[in-house]
Design a protein that fits this description.
Strand order of the largest sheet of chain A: 5-4-6-3-7-8-9
Structural class of chain B: alpha+beta
Oligomer: heterodimer
Shape of chain A: globular
Mean pLDDT of chain B: 95
Strand content of chain B: 25-35%
Distance between the termini of chain B: 41 Å
Order of helices and strands of chain A: EEHEHEHEHEEHHEHEH
CATH topology of chain A: Rossmann fold
CATH class of chain A: Alpha Beta
CATH architecture of chain B: 2-Layer Sandwich
Strand order of the largest sheet of chain B: 2-1-6
Strand content of chain A: 15-25%
Mean pLDDT of chain A: 93
Largest interface: A-B, 41 and 44 residues
Number of helices of chain A: 8
CATH topology of chain B: hypothetical protein PF0899 fold
Number of strands of chain A: 9
Amino acid sequence: MNDLHAKDNIVTRSVKVETSVLRRNDQAALANRQLLTERGIVALNLISSPGSGKTTLLEVTLVRMRERGKRCAVIVGDQQTDLDAQRLYGKGAPVRQIETVSSCHLDAQRVGDVLPEVIDDQTELLFIENVGNLICPAAFNLGEDFKVVLLSVTEGEDKPIKYPVVFSRAKVVLITKCDLIPHIEFDRDKCLRYLRQVNPGAVIFELSAKTGTGFEQWIGYLAELGRQDER
Amino acid sequence: MHELSIALALVDEVEQISARERARNVCGISVSLGELCGVEREALEFCFPLAAEGTCVERAKLIINEVKTEVLCAECGRRSNPEMPCMICAGCGSSNVEITGGCDFIISSVELEQDE
């Protein structure tokens, strides 16, 4: 614990610490987690590059979940504007926008600040749409149940091995904009192989919000999550 | 770049430790940087002096120990360090693995200067 080295009248000593650098974020994440668990809410942290279709995914998902009688809530992060939140209003779920201004990710404190306003006793699922960025959000636990990473087919099949950190830590990976595959060079098999390499256990859905492809399975999966947590 | 906010969090934590230990200055910080924690070594090294400027951590040497990803194999039970980005057991090659290490970014120890 204490190695003492005398140097003139100043002593140097080594102190063992073993605390997380992001201790404060982790504490806030834990508080979010406790609040969500108490209410029986499953929270998903949606991460992707800008323009991968997170908001479009939510637009369709919220409507479909409402049809199934599932109560959802949304927290959406962007550097600036509330354009995403505006797109999501009126879809049956309370929405709160966080403008991160200079920050490239959401942190647990900011989520915690708005969390009580967006959830209520009936909420079953909370979607946290992170700032469009495939690197930074991976480092910050928000108190979610798990991370969902989106990869649109126009980004190329090699994204999973280029950004292995975020893909390896996701429970679910959504391949989006699949309706565009016939028009571009996208090697689906290669993409799935790369995904399996970095994350052998990932649950993968191939979706098109435009045609509705894959949504039956995705919505079924989400509905099941809510049900497991019902008490 | 989130490394600046992470470097600020690091400096903040170390300042608190220094105050708690009644140190005069911090001359060294050892951190364990997990391969999967989402923090770039080079970016952190770049941001640390900026975050430390004007604090008791300003002259501290930052020692970064990189921690490899560790997986536990459900087939053979072995713990191993896979070669990124291939998340497979180094023992039997199975992909039925669970990540058990390399996700954390931890302050291991600090070197403090004190009056005798």
